[in-house]
Amino acid sequence: MANSAADSRQSHLTQYIPPKGMYEEFEDDAHYLAKVKGWGLSTKKEFWYKDRYQHCLVTIKGYEIFGETAEFNTLVIEFPDGNLTCIHPAYLKEMQSSGFGKEIIAQASGDESAAVEVKKEKKPEPAAPAAMEAKAKTPAKKEKVKKAPKLVLPEEKVHFTATVKQFALSWNHFNEDNDEVVVFENVRIEQEEPIEVGLAWGSHSKTLKKHELEPGQQLEFDGKIVKKSLPKGKDVEDEALLLDVSVAYKINNPSKITKK
Q1: What is the DSSP string of 81-100?
Q2: 62 Cβ contact partners less than 8 Å away, ≥ 6 residues apart
Q3: Same structural domain for residues 162 and 131?
Q4: Contact 259, 211 (CB under 8 A)
Q5: Disordered: where is this region (predicted)?
Q6: CB-based burial of residue 99 (10 Å sphere; 0-12 exposed, 13-18 middle, 19+ buried)?
Q7: Domain assignment of residue 146, yes or no
Q8: Are residues 93 and 215 in the same domain?
């Protein structure tokens, strides 16, 4: 209890890195389990956070997506006092080790003998979360061959118009099974200068299933769009559920859906 009280008093000294604007949230428990497994974490709901000033349980509220092909994630975790901070999945995983943080906590409390004992079995210290994030965000060397200009996608939620092209199966390597997805065509971001996206896809979530969509249905909705290719389904018996074109963009968290 004494350590818990000390952590509470010193939590304001922790350097928080709050998310920049909106971040991705989990659609349901199955989505949460698939994501934490992919990050190499256990499927529990709370994880240890350890730094020089506090040692407490946190929860994963969501994640940020970045990278040219949206392959990197930064976790958004919530502390008991409600503070949010971003952290690299690998760094949070390191914190779950029983030996992690003993030395810096001992130094903060003035127990030098404990710090010396931990040093004997100390492993190489992981990089700070901000440094790990910066490393992950470092762009690859520019290729000499010029590529076609890419769409500049908005980071915030925007308004879309689109048509349901078809339903398809997509391979989910986290649970090693096919997921049902919706493929949209004529996707357009409606703003002062509209952006023609073309094809995009999204999970056939509970929100979309409530609207009983059909191919050819025209829709309006709000959502976020990222560059993420649609993985093709595997061992699909019904060929109608196989996609014969590539789709490079994904729409997340659609809301305010209306049929035209």
Answers
A1: TS-EEEE-HHHHHHHTSTTT
A2: 19, 23, 24, 25, 26, 75, 76
A3: no
A4: yes
A5: 116-146
A6: exposed
A7: no
A8: no
